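Q: My labmate handed me this sequence with no annotations at all. I'd like to see what the chain might look like in three dimensions before we decide whether it's worth expressing. Could you predict it?
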Amino acid sequence: MNWWICCYWHEPDAPMDPVGLVRIWAMADALTAVGETVTVFAPRYRSALAPRRFCTVPIAMVPGAVIRPISYAVRAFFSALWRGLRQRPAVVYYRWSESPHPLLLARLFGATCICEVNGEPVPPWGASGWRSRLTHRLASFALRRCDRVVVLTEGLRQLVRMEYGVAADRIALLPSGSDLALFHPREKIRCAQAAGLDPACEYIGFVGSFYQYQGLATLLEAFARMRAKRPSVRLVMVGDGEQAAALREQAERQGLSGLITWTGRVPYERVPALIGAMDVCVAPFCGGRGETSPVKIFDYLACGKPVVASAIPSVTALFSQSNGVVLVEPDHAELLADAVLTVLNRPDDSRRLGAAGRVFVEERFGWEAIARGLRDLAGQTAGHRQKPLRVIVHNAGESV
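A: Here is what I predict for the chain of 400 residues:
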């Protein structure tokens, strides 16, 4: 089938290459690997210009907080419209955004429209007042009219059904996953040396964007408690974000600066080696994180690392100690510190956790399995999709 994937994403603090597009590239590559034809319409970032085995259409955007998403939507729509006159899509897949242009394109060309909801459309930390109400109405309008809505967690399934009025039989649960060829167990000493770290130290690691809901202030408090009991422990913070300056200031106040490695944003292909240098990986989400797919945990586990994570609903629905994840109550630095130290103090249990996590991801959450699931979903939906709109295009001499 011919797939179009539409994805607007912007991080104000990372205008060159938002990490939010990583899942899109992985999904497009996996669909291509199972024999699908894929075209991705993405904002013109560095990653959109990289050579890939599928077609990428970089969409230039006009700077400015308000005009940026509008310029993407308008330019992506007309670029896709022109391409569709030459070769129609069978599936238009898009990650939820406030623009309805992917839904309109699907209706114009008679394609199956699938919307992915990977987080709350109106998250608790987002806009408020009239903007929140408007976004909620847009989400309700679009999600009820898509042929299928793909959600990444059970909590999102319930939210989309109850809050946005989507019929239960039109919602498909398809969790996220990891690139098993890229993320795999590696020798710690070599990874530490390659990263410029001391192999004799023990490393606690976090990978992700530095946003408030990640619980990184709690992680720094927990690290200070760990250091008091285990002087050999160090912290590796991989990523960047709006909380970076505040976190560095917090580390300075607590006397931790010399014990933390701040890598900044790194290319995605370098992340597995950094995870390989870690002894324990953490996902200390805040209790008010809301519904989302805990992507980083899949990557940690794929690398064979034990994980300590906050017991928020989207995490507890998928993970437990039997598959490599030790769960702790969120927003409690002492509990987080104690859990990490327990894992470090029991190396045999730590290895078992890491091995169990790798097997768990291999069995259910590799990208090829996810791509096959998407392909099957699109095939099942094709016979029930809505009829295309009838639009006469005089220059092309055909109806679409």
